[in-house]
Amino acid sequence: MGDVLNLIQDGKLDIISLNELSKKPPIFEEGDRPIWTDDHISKGMLEAHLDADSDMASRKHERIANSCEWLVSRLDLIGSKVIDLGCGPGLYCEELVRHGVDMTGVDFSQRSIEYARSKNEGAINYVLGDYLSLDFDEKFDAALMIYYDFDVLSDIERKRLLDKLNSLLKKGGYFVFDVLTPRHDEAGIETTSWSTSTGGFWHPQDYMELVQRYYYPEEQVKLDQYIILDEFGEATLYRVWHRFFTLRKITNLLKKHGFIVEDFYQNFVGTPYQKESDSIGIIARKKSR
Ligand SMILES: C[S@@+](CC[C@H](N)C(=O)[O-])C[C@H]1O[C@@H](n2cnc3c(N)ncnc32)[C@H](O)[C@@H]1O
After folding, report:
1. In terms of domains, do 85 and 14 share one?
2. Most CB atoms within 10 A, among 4, 61, 178, 277?
3. Is residue 194 classed as helix, strand or coil in its secondary structure?
4. Quick check: pTM over 0.70?
5. 190: domain range?
């Protein structure tokens, strides 16, 4: 993560530095601060997770309930030990435990984990930490990573995740996750926009938000870059990377890491995948040998 820049120098706005800051960066270069664990941003993020009718941080709650019901039946999860990687405030954990699944949820957002723990009395094991580095003594029947979180990792992080899954899962254990495909309407597009706020999602006081979307066609990677400029000239850079996956690409990547794709859908309510689909819900299994 880089240092936060002050764009007011000797009473003047440093346009040259702003220009530098807004250039298209090398692929997967990080911003100044992480989004999910920031003390202020995590407040708005939790509100978004808990908004039953919003798709911003989590899917609409009715859709989550339908997905959980479908997954329990498709994977025969009753009585299984399941870990939800990036569980947020526990929307999937809560639903799945109601269906008789033994749930562990992991997230590095303290705000989300505290909320999740406050919602249940020990029926779910919530762990605060980074799923790329946490170790567990027990092995799981299935790991979930739902809402395109697999896509937002850098390639190095994705390899670490797949290695971690190998140690977390029992032989034959499921890895259930979704990806966006290059058919998605945000692939291939570059945009720039700005807006102002008197305090909101990114910052508690007045700020200006400069948003850029960059696309890297060869790698099929998108960057959403946010420069948040406060009234004192401090500019904080946030970056959200996203790699789009074809079915073939994801199948090959999983194979390299000891997983096979057992089945794939357009989503986790069982809609069949078609060539034109902009997302894939994947049911992979750790190889038994
Ligand atoms: C898009 S949200 C999805 C949350 C949840 N799966 C849902 O759909 O309701 C991504 C979640 O992953 C968490 N997260 C991202 N990277 C993480 C990491 N390396 N370790 C633990 N949690 C992570 C974030 O804090 C956030 O709660």
Report:
1. no
2. 178
3. strand
4. yes
5. 5-30+185-243
